[in-house]
Write a structure and sequence with these properties.
Layout (H helix, E strand, L loop, with lengths): L29 E2 L8 E2 L8 H4 L38 H6 L13 H4 L8 E6 L5 E4 H6 L4 E8 L4 E11 H6 L9 E6 L19 E5 H5 L4 E6 L2 E2 L9 E3 L12 E7 L6 H5 L23 E4 L5 E3 L7 H4 L14
Parallel strand pairs: 3-12, 6-13
Antiparallel strand pairs: 1-2, 3-4, 5-6, 6-9, 7-8, 7-12, 9-10, 9-11, 13-14
């Protein structure tokens, strides 16, 4: 007889999940003075937007119709019931029309601009400290993977949250293709860099391309998930198509979009937001209600698309699966 051990988030009903357009609402606007001036990231208060006021966003006409996605026949994928959640899924209209994607601009209704993202042809290179470095055409890579759907909570550093049905595969399965060497300690990821396509990348204030990183142990954790789709279909450009990361126990800026390179290394990566604001954004960025951002509390979170406020959970409620990753690292700034 098989016995299923319920995880802490198994009590979440699907009707409670959060839409993805709200997912990347990080107000990381940068003020730069003369050369050598410090970067200051904007806070999360005072924005007059649909998400802040509770009004439901509406899609505008005029967006370019995207060509059919070659992977569309693989959706919807079978749901993995081992990854349920304790709240309703966010409405898709919210998730798909309120996003951050700094490559295309700093405003939150970025979906109409992000449709410039061309996801085919697309390649992903995996290199560094691996036995079998390789570059994969995205659909060839997808063909090597079994897709599944998972319900994940998402917590933004700006103190809002949502719940999303991601489709994809574990990061560990991807890394297994290239056989990491024992000397590899970190996984460095980066996005595309194409200023012609992405107008936000013409702004020299930002250290393009967007870079994120995690330890090899974090990458091996079963929660680390490579996302290919959302809401039962291929991910739209504003979600970070065709391949992005989801790390539900960390603040959302760790979940890098539109990945083109993954490098295994023995050097800790300096990440995009860490480079811009090292006093506010660090390497680890694990969710913790007791460690405030320098300019606002993290004790509560606003549920996107509603006026509900919930107490923030340590590791966003996933501590049972990830707390052991940080034993012996208590002196590290684990929560920024």
């Amino acid at each position: 007889m098989s016995i299923r051990i319920r995880k802490p988030w198994d009590m979440l009903r699907e009707s409670e999940a959060t839409p993805e357009h709200l997912f990347f609402n990080r107000r990381g606007l940068i003020k730069a003075a003369a050369a050598g001036a410090a970067f200051v990231l904007a806070g999360c208060d005072g924005e007059d937007s649909a998400a802040d006021t509770g009004r439901k966003p509406t899609a505008q006409s005029g967006a370019t119709e995207a060509p059919p996605d070659p992977s569309a026949g693989r959706y919807p994928a079978k749901r993995n019931d081992g990854f349920a959640i304790d709240r309703p899924l966010t409405d898709e209209q919210w998730a798909s029309t309120y996003n951050n994607f700094y490559e295309f601009g700093t405003h939150k209704q970025i979906w109409a601009t992000a449709d410039r993202l061309k996801t085919r042809p697309w390649t992903v290179t995996i290199d560094g400290m691996v036995a079998k470095p390789a570059t994969y055409a995205i659909d060839d890579l997808f063909a090597k993977m079994d897709f599944e759907e998972r319900l994940y909570r998402h917590r933004c550093v700006e103190a809002w949250s949502m719940a999303v049905p991601w489709t994809g595969f574990p990061l560990s399965r991807l890394l297994a293709l290239v056989e990491p060497l024992s000397s590899a300690k970190y996984v460095r990821m980066e996005t595309f860099n194409d200023p012609e396509m992405a107008p936000g990348q013409r702004q020299s204030l930002y250290p393009w391309p967007y870079v994120e990183g995690l330890t090899i142990e974090e990458a091996a954790n079963d929660l680390a998930f490579m996302v290919t789709g959302v809401y039962g279909k291929p991910a739209a450009p504003q979600f970070g198509a065709p391949l992005r990361l989801a790390l539900p126990w960390k603040y959302g800026f760790k979940s890098i979009k539109s990945i083109v390179r993954i490098t295994l290394t023995d050097q800790r990566p300096v990440t995009f937001w860490q480079d811009l604001g090292p006093d506010e954004y660090g390497f680890w960025a694990n969710v913790n209600p007791q460690v405030p951002h320098p300019r606002w509390s993290q004790a509560f979170e606003r549920v996107l698309g509603s006026d509900e406020r919930r107490p923030t959970l340590l590791f966003n409620g996933y501590g049972e699966m990830v707390a052991g990753l940080y034993k012996g690292l208590e002196r590290e700034p684990l929560y920024m």
